Amino acid sequence: MLLSDVLLPFFLVTGDVELSFILTSDYSSRISFAILTSLIGKLILIVSLFLKNSHGKQWLSLIGLMFLVVSLGFLTFGDWSYDSLFILSFASGIPFLLYLGRILFLIYRTKNHLM
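^ thats the sequence. predicted structure below, dont judge the formating
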């Protein structure tokens, strides 16, 4: 198995990239935009780990999390018919949303020094 097959979806490796910013398009054409925004959000979160300034670290963490939420929202907004992948995307994103609430609470608590 090639490393590119593990890290990137097949349509990105072959060059068939179709970035669709339309929320009414089908799932397969929206996934490339979701992958791109998710990658940007994860890179921003990684950069925020190496910052020494706590104020800048909090802001970069919030921006990175916003990119991840946009990615999840872009995948889950759509036709919720029974045979659709939108439901599966939302169900797999529930743990992320729960953890997002915890992270936002911790950022708020450290920002206002509540103990």
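The chain has one domain: 3-112.
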